[in-house]
Specification:
Two copies of one chain form a homodimer. In chain A, the strands form four sheets. In chain A, strands 1, 2, 3, 4, 7, 8, 16, 17 and 18 form a nine-stranded mixed beta sheet that branches. Chain A has two domains: about 290 residues, 3-Layer(aba) Sandwich (Aminopeptidase), CATH 3.40.630; about 110 residues, Alpha-Beta Plaits, CATH 3.30.70.360. The relative contact order of chain A is 0.18. By secondary structure, chain A is α+β, with helices and mostly antiparallel strands. Chain A starts with 11 loop residues before the first helix and ends with a helix. Chain A is built from eleven helices and 18 strands. Helices cover about 35% and strands about 25% of the residues of chain A. Chains A and B meet through strand 10, helix 7, strand 11, strand 12 and strand 13 of A and strand 10, helix 7, strand 11, strand 12 and strand 13 of B.
Chain lengths: ~425, ~425
């Protein structure tokens, strides 16, 4: 069917009430929300979200990876789903919008259609992904990236297998959670930016170019610990001097790339770490992110060249071990175009930008057409009780999501 | 009287046996010696050393600062003492030569004279200074640098006042420990180098030019912690990038000075210290040492200029707080000349060098003529059970000390 999209609207008051209600579950006494995946608070929140899904006319199921999937039937029984969603788990002291907005706006979009007696050609799905903030097991299982290996879940102090039971998942059938383009034609996620680009530039909507890939390395520098008084400068093997050069090289490597990637030395530990001892050993991490795999590869090459030169110059040994590799996940051109058109039609200012934080959409991008809609985060603050997106901005995001879903129904017909 | 110095010799076997015996007190099961000042092991060692002093014909007293002072009477009753000595306390897992050699070689020198029925014009003193490895309260009290302020002794977990009781000191009379040139004409300390200059260059004896002064600063860099993915490079206030620049500036400042000082960032702590967060705060220490106060002053000035420039460039706040200032303590020309002459007469190769580690002699240099004799440390290793100076080298050091004391008796007549 064809829907007169200009007449469609979400109920912004209801959406923001739902956000407020979910923020009560896991609220910490001194601010922030602690709703760790698989915790009692997470289970309580899932129960609430299930009720809202059902009120919006969806059938709800939980897959083997614990993903809760609400499905609003389409008019054409043979079409694969158009999906949206995000997560409702938080970091140990998180904010109220990260993840939650995407889930509740998806439900609100379906409820709007439902209340107006509208049904798309495609089935619509709203997915609550399991454990986005730690293992990402939910979206990874759907994308086929979980192979049955043991996963330890540090916050819960137990295996992910045991965790899944708590939310109705089933580790023994984890491979059954896998999906493909055959049953998911497209996936769109609405999320707060968690950065300051939209907020500082005054844009209402971000059209995400894709989720950046990430190369993370553990670097160990071994020098010789020695007396800071009696060891002449030219007889030192100072691991911290080497680490300082590495830190500045990492910054320079990012600044040299035309695509404006980011690269960070975030963690650095010195040993023995005493004022009167020349440092003998430093362990540090390098985190590099960009939308282009070529850029990531080149930065890694540059880093290894720098490390070799620094080791020689400082007479230290430097070891570089990969600890995390995530491939970039570009957004589908078709979905980006639809989001841009929607913004234009609705009169929202839109800005194209990459997502430099990881999202469930990243995994969906590996199996089907993916897109993301960002709304501004005040001052870019995230993973904090200071995280803020105004009710109006939340409503704008949900409105763009609703119209995007409706147009994708036509694009993928 | 005039002594025929060429006939004088120490008993090297006895000296090295004493070193071995003292190394048993506080020996750790897996190597190293733990004989913290004021501990039961320290008290036991003091008792042993007191016996050796008495066997060498000395009268022993303990002053208010817990310094144990053996005195071998001179022929002239009115002359002030010529003194030597060092310490017998260790770091938590130290070696067997640091401090001990100077004390036991001093006793051996006196015993040699005593056994040959010789007595100098001046009284000879061998001083075991209290707590060289931590508060240096013993030598500082003698130099008048302890004013009665409360001192906390971290290893013992109690106040220095309580510690002093254990070794026969008396905090209430601490000012009485003070001495001057009037009753100490000269002080010479024999010590292992704790550096690798003599060992690597193959010299037998080091003639110390003085003990370097030290300026130590705590530097706090305050930036803004932020998401390592979503914060563009040009919007960061990265405290670790600033700290890296500080670390390299500290190295450059030392290398630019003609007197070859040392400067070290030995301790550095990052916060929040996570791979995915741009560092918001770094605390680090800067330790700078040189024999010239002018050089120390200039390095401090250069450091503060660098910090200002780095803060502006990295958009961070940088605070610099002095935490330790020790004035350089140059050796007396007269004593350096005597040590050099003795080496020449005895056929030992000698090399002039500064002491870049602190010593009790540093404090003595503030009240009287001071000199130091170094013997090589194998590979410069110190504060470790790997510390090593051969028995022959220990005997050579004691021999030079004995002859130096005898000649100083004439020089200061």
């Amino acid at each position: 069917m064809t829907v007169l999209t200009t007449a469609l609207a979400v109920n912004g008051d209801r959406l923001n009430q739902h956000i407020d209600q979910l923020a009560e579950l896991g609220r910490l006494p001194h601010g922030g929300i602690r709703r760790l995946a698989f915790s009692p608070e997470d289970c309580q929140a899932r129960q609430r979200v299930r009720q809202w899904m059902e009120q919006a006319g969806m059938k709800v199921r939980v897959d083997a990876a614990g993903n809760m999937i609400g499905r609003y039937a389409g008019q054409q029984t043979k079409l694969s789903a158009i999906a949206t969603g995000s997560h409702i788990d938080t970091v140990p002291a998180g904010g109220r919008y990260d993840g939650v907005l995407g889930v509740l706006a998806g439900i609100e979009a379906v409820q709007s259609l439902h209340e107006q007696g509208l049904r798309l050609d495609h089935p619509l799905e709203v997915i609550v992904f399991s454990d986005e903030e730690s293992s990402m097991i939910g979206s990874r299982a759907i994308a086929g990236a979980v192979k049955g290996e043991a996963i330890y879940h540090p916050e819960q102090g137990t295996s992910i297998q045991a965790c899944l039971d708590a939310v109705g998942g089933d580790w023994s059938r984890i491979l059954s959670a896998r999906r493909s383009r055959e049953d998911m034609a497209a996936f769109v996620e609405l999320h707060v930016e968690q950065g300051s680009v939209l907020d500082s530039k005054g844009y209402e909507i971000g059209v995400v170019d894709g989720v950046v890939g990430m190369n993370r390395y553990a670097i160990t520098i071994t020098g010789v610990p020695n007396h800071a008084g009696t060891t002449p400068m030219d007889m030192r093997h100072d691991a911290l001097v080497a680490a300082a050069q590495v830190t500045l090289a990492v910054q320079a490597i990012a600044l040299e790339q035309p695509s404006r990637p980011v690269a960070t030395v975030g963690s650095l530990n010195v040993s023995p770490n005493a004022a009167n001892i020349v440092p003998g050993r430093v362990e540090l991490t390098v985190d590099m992110r960009d939308l282009s795999q070529d850029c990531l590869d080149d930065m890694t090459y540059q880093l290894s060249r720098h490390l070799q030169a620094i080791a020689a110059k400082t007479r230290t040994d430097i070891d570089m071990t990969p600890i995390l590799k995530v491939k970039p996940s570009p957004a589908a051109t078709s979905i980006k175009s639809v989001i841009r058109e929607v913004c234009q039609d609705l009169g929202f200012s839109a800005h194209a930008l990459p997502s430099r934080a990881g999202h469930d959409a990243m995994e969906m991008g590996h199996i089907t057409d993916m897109g993301m809609i960002f709304v501004p985060s005040h001052a870019g603050i995230s993973h904090s009780d200071q995280e803020y997106t105004s009710p109006e901005q939340c409503t704008q995001g949900a409105t763009v999501l609703l119209h995007t879903l409706v147009r994708l129904d036509q694009v993928y017909s």
